[in-house]
Amino acid sequence: MRYPEFLTGSGKIRLVAPSYGCTFEPYVTRLESAEKKFRGMGYEIVEAPHVRLCEDFGRSGAEDTLGRELTEALLDESAAAVMSVGGGETMCEIVPHIDFKAIGNAAPKWYMGFSDNTNYTFLSATLADTAAIYGPCFGSFGFTPPDEGTADALELIHGRKLAFSGYPMWERCGLETEDPLAPLNLTERTVYSSLNYTGGKIRGRLLGGCGDILFTLLGTRFDRVREFNERYKDDGTLWFIEFCDHHPMDVRRALWAMREAGWFDTAKGFIIGRPVHIDENQQGLDMHTAVEGAIGRLGVPIILDADLGHLPPAMPIITGAVGEAELSGGAFTLRHTLI
User: Crossing angle, helix 287-295 and helix 248-260, to 10 degrees?
Assistant: First the structure.
């Protein structure tokens, strides 16, 4: 696995919009606040042409154009990192236009984003053997102070912190305010659950992202998970998965499909994030029983309701790194090793 150099407090950061662009509030204000902060740290910020546009459904522009913009940013030898300005809906359609071969042959650089950005953070590891950060999109850095997960992501991309602890509270619904930079509305106490877990560290090479997107990539010509599992079979895989639009039945079907496709053949364990539909029940099936029904039979430990995904704060995760996860005394921790 190839790991980029961490940021040092100077250099160029390329911003891209391979999914939604920043065209309306609160995202415009957050983007500009984050740019101001990073410039204050000493960085040059360069926006891709479509960062502030919306020219296609669910995306900032045409699929071939965005694929070229993303590839160009990742091949820019003068850039220190590439960060996405947002998630969205149809980034999968730009994947055929991303030159993963060239990216895999170039000097690696960090890419950070989450949700729809799974289309790159996941494939960067499986297709280009290059680690990427499943973490906040750039605008999240505009908050003062940043939430705990975003603050951890800033520490991570500078290489100052590789081990993270779960957060005591999380946000179910944002504050009703017109302030684009209003802080998180932390009303819910974090409570973790587990299946097949008797304690101790769960160790494996981290792979995953937004389950909605993973399911979309399943079985396409970009699905090289079996090959990834074979390359890293001595490590095994520690899967991290969170769901956005999927309801409990969708979750069960998606995880079943991944299991039957052989994705979990070398799984050492699972970290399942808080799903957006966390309280939903469909015919007696909730999110916990959906997970248990699909992958509980694998017999490997599963940590549920982890600080990952669309209900913030969410800890950053390096896709491709070796992870050690542990649930002890009601506290969740995740440590990265870059090997």
Answer: 20
For the domain made up of 11-161, the CATH class stated in words is alpha beta
Instruction: Sheet with 331-337: list strands edge to edge.
Output: 163-165, 331-337, 322-328, 202-210, 237-242, 267-273, 302-306, 193-195
What is the Cα–Cα distance from 223 to 92, expressed in whole angstroms? 12
**In sequence order, which ranges of 5-147 are alpha helices (DSSP H)?**
27-41, 63-75, 100-105, 118-128
- Which residue in 174, 194, 177 sits closest to 185, CA to CA? 174
8 Å CB contact between 300 and 270: yes
DSSP three-state, residue 178 = coil
Instruction: For the chain, list residues with pLDDT below 70.
Output: none
CB atoms within 10 A of CB 269: 23
Q: Is 159 left (phi over 0), alpha (psi -120 to 50) or beta?
A: left
Measured in degrees and rounded to the nearest 5, phi and psi for residue 154 equal -65, -40
CATH code that applies to domain 187-337: 3.50.30.60
- Say whether pTM exceeds 0.90: yes
Instruction: Read off φ and ψ for residue 219, nearest 5 degrees.
Output: 85, -5
| Element containing residue 322 per DSSP (H, E) | strand 322-328
- Each residue's pLDDT tens digit, 185-226: 999 999 999 999 999 999 999 999 999 999 999 999 999 999
Assess contact for 163 and 329: CB atoms under 8 A: no
Burial 120-152 (b: 16+ CB within 10 A, else e): bbbbbbbbbbbbbbbbbbbbbbbbeebbbbbbb
Domain boundaries defined on the chain: 11-161, 187-337
Most distant CA pair in the chain, distance? 54
Shortest CA distance to 270 belongs to which of 212, 338, 204? 204
